[in-house]
């Protein structure tokens, strides 16, 4: 299977924070959701993918190419949809098309007007007068109009109302039908990903915890609930994190079979949501 993006052992250090030894592959034709708390390293990783930041070590490749020798070719094939307006505020969509269009070899005017109509976008209103949702759709229309093969979205649904969010997610699902596009979708609203993601990559405190199919995440992680009397040093070994309360404990595990053989019927096992996994692992990376 083709990898559209490959980050191999990528590290970027800042004062007081670093993204460490990231190995991340994005498979062609799929939606990968990128989750993690604010400040976990999502934006830093995306900036390295887009060559806005250079890694201190490791290798970044897109479409099998590196930025050193193929920057223009790579950027032709990427569309970026950002949380908020990335265009000059006073410009309208017609102005932006006039400026952006000639920069792309594969710019398609017909496609641009198709998406303007489909998304119900005003051509002559200044970007700053548009709602956040409309700005998002404008960014997406421009990304799609130059036949971008990889669409990178940084927190695209943050601040959108629920109806608009659902509309955007339905639209992304439609875009994936032909199998030629790949979407990398960074978010902390994990419920969005249950609807559209094929793979989930989870970053925590600058470390990539996993990159698995959404099906495998559902199979591998579970919430375990039981009485406090069941906990001791031996029985806790199968848990990634334990939350204790007077009424009993709740714990996250990635070793369901072992938990079943240790506790038998004395516990309740439930599927862990992406939010559960983020919550329990956020402050706890000793198992990585």
UniProtKB/TrEMBL annotation:
<dbReference type="GO" id="GO:0005524">
    <property type="term" value="F:ATP binding"/>
</dbReference>
<keyword id="KW-0547">Nucleotide-binding</keyword>
<dbReference type="InterPro" id="IPR017871">
    <property type="entry name" value="ABC_transporter-like_CS"/>
</dbReference>
<keyword id="KW-0813">Transport</keyword>
<dbReference type="InterPro" id="IPR003593">
    <property type="entry name" value="AAA+_ATPase"/>
</dbReference>
<feature type="domain" description="ABC transporter">
    <location>
        <begin position="5"/>
        <end position="230"/>
    </location>
</feature>
<dbReference type="Pfam" id="PF00005">
    <property type="entry name" value="ABC_tran"/>
</dbReference>
<protein>
    <submittedName>
        <fullName>ABC-2 type transport system ATP-binding protein</fullName>
    </submittedName>
</protein>
<keyword id="KW-0067">ATP-binding</keyword>
<dbReference type="InterPro" id="IPR003439">
    <property type="entry name" value="ABC_transporter-like_ATP-bd"/>
</dbReference>
<dbReference type="InterPro" id="IPR027417">
    <property type="entry name" value="P-loop_NTPase"/>
</dbReference>
<dbReference type="InterPro" id="IPR051782">
    <property type="entry name" value="ABC_Transporter_VariousFunc"/>
</dbReference>
């Amino acid at each position: 299977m083709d990898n559209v993006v490959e980050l191999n052992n990528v590290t970027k250090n800042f004062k007081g924070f670093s993204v460490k030894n990231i190995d991340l592959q994005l498979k062609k034709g799929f939606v990968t959701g990128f989750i993690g708390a604010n400040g976990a390293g999502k934006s830093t990783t995306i900036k390295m993918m887009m060559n806005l930041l250079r890694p201190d070590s490791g290798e970044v490749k897109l479409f099998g190419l590196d930025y050193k020798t193929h920057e223009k070719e790579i950027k032709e094939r990427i569309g970026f949809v950002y949380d908020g307006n990335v265009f000059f505020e006073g410009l309208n969509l017609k102005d932006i098309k006039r400026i952006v269009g000639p920069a792309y070899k594969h710019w398609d005017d017909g496609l641009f007007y198709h998406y303007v109509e489909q998304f119900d976008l005003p051509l002559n209103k200044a970007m700053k007068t548009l709602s956040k949702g409309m700005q998002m759709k404008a960014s997406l229309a421009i990304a799609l109009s130059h036949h971008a093969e990889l669409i990178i979205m940084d927190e695209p649904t943050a601040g959108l109302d629920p109806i608009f969010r659902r509309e955007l997610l339905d639209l992304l699902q439609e875009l994936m039908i032909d199998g030629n596009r790949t979407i990398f979708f960074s978010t902390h609203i994990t419920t969005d990903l249950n609807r559209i993601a094929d793979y989930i990559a989870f970053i925590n405190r600058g470390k990539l915890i996993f990159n698995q199919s959404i099906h495998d995440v559902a199979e591998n992680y579970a919430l375990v609930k039981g009485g406090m009397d069941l906990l001791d040093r031996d029985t806790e070994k199968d848990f990634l994190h334990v939350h204790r309360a007077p009424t009993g404990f709740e714990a996250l595990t990635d070793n369901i079979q072992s938990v079943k053989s240790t506790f038998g019927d004395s516990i309740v096992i439930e599927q862990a949501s992406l939010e559960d996994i983020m919550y329990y692992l956020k402050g706890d990376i000793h198992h990585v």
